[in-house]
Amino acid sequence: MHIDFESVVTETINKYNMLEETARVIVGFSGGADSVSLLYFLNYFIKKTNREIEIIPVHINHGIRGEEADRDENFAREFCNKLGMNLIVVHEDVKALAVKNKISTEEAGRNVRYRVFRRCAEGMLSKIAVAHTLSDSCETIILNLIRGTGPKGLCGIPPTRENIIRPLISVTRAQVEEYCLKNSLNYINDSTNFENVYTRNKIRLEIIPLIKKINPNFEYSAKRLMTVLNENEIFLNTIAERAFIESYDGTCYDISRIENLDDTLKSRVAHKILSTYFEKPVENKHVNLLLNVIKNHSGAINVSKDLKIVCDGEKLFAMKQKNSKLLLWKKKMNIGKNFLTNINSNVIIKIISADEFKDIEKAEKKNNIWFINYDSLPGECYFRPRQYGDRFTFKNRGITKSFKKIFNELKIPAKERSKIPILACEDTVIWSKCVGVSKEYAIKKGCKKILILELEEF
Fold first, then answer.
1. pLDDT > 90 in the chain, percent
2. How many helices (H) and strands (E) does the chain have?
3. Structure letter (DSSP) for residue 260
4. pLDDT tens digits for range 90-100
5. For 5-223, CATH number?
6. Could you tell me which of 2, 1, 120, 103 has the C-alpha nearest to residue 54?
7. How far apart are CA 419 and CA 427, in angstroms?
8. pLDDT (tens digit, 9 = 90+) per residue, 346-390?
9. What is the pLDDT of residue 197?
10. How far apart are CA 83 and CA 89, in angstroms?
11. Angstrom distance (rounded) from CA 253 to CA 247
12. How far is 384 from 387, CA to CA, in rounded Å?
């Protein structure tokens, strides 16, 4: 199927608002055809549309393929130099990390890449662009089908997720290579892509070619399936999220509001409840255990060594495990010095007028100092650790996440999480040391008073 590469990628970028409210784009750049075409096209597109967006290519040398990896790094440097871009190169021993964490080298490499990309994207209105294509998405749904999956696993790779964008997600790998040929773009091939020791490679090199003998347009047939399933997922998740919120009164979940739901929605709500407390991904066996507790109006599920979800007949609620070492502390916010002795920290609070504070729009956290719109504070505020169910809205992206997800992404060890201070009013999080000020409480034009929060650790 012939398509116009530039038109399709442009349509994808615009459809999903990939470059809206963006000051810079971190581009994962391996030097392969996919990342070469992505970097080249983004550079062309940003100039063509007169956007003031900085492009920062990032290359990660995984330390796996010796001289070939060094060749890739040199190619990446030369290619970026021709485009007038400064390449960031990071060296990691992925094999050692895989052994240390008892995971595959594929997973270790993926974890390293996204950790580096997120680190490079900190501090500004940044997006992370990765070069996944429609072909990658098709491989993913076949892989999930083989392993066993529900409808969500057949939705493919999403065009966007949080601040990650995938402009090439609607074009195939063959179309990417055709674009490179058309524009005389050289690229390198990773030899491991042709080794059948990896499951994904077997799908790419053996299974998909057989399928395409039956249907040459398989990727576009699969795309129609993914589109329909994604629409269904969005619809069902919206309803499930509403049911999840309505079942929770701030302290516990009302079983009667859950058990009368359709089975599909009931499972999704159970998954959302568990996701609020689990530090690791929730599995189907956990969902089934919780559904059984709901059905019987009794029982409990251990979600960590410190916490369990308990049913007392009509309510579900989180409870500390017996002999739990979960750190609990709470201190009212006061003007001046707040001594948080539990975590060996002081927080100094000052209130000033907007007239005393210059250049409000450009205020940023620096040297452990944050700025909060004092006028917007909802009531009496307390410093405390994260509570199960706490969520945070990033001011530059408008994305809301649970602290469980935030801590997982930041690779904060479980034993350290209760030592990270949060400023909150009841269940509303205003600030946290690890992520800063929540969007609703960030300073803005028109605010009259500003709270200055300075953290001292000792």
1. 38
2. 14, 21
3. T
4. 888 888 888 88
5. 3.40.50.620
6. 120
7. 18
8. 888 988 888 877 655 555 556 678 899 988 888 888 888 887 678
9. 61
10. 16
11. 5
12. 8
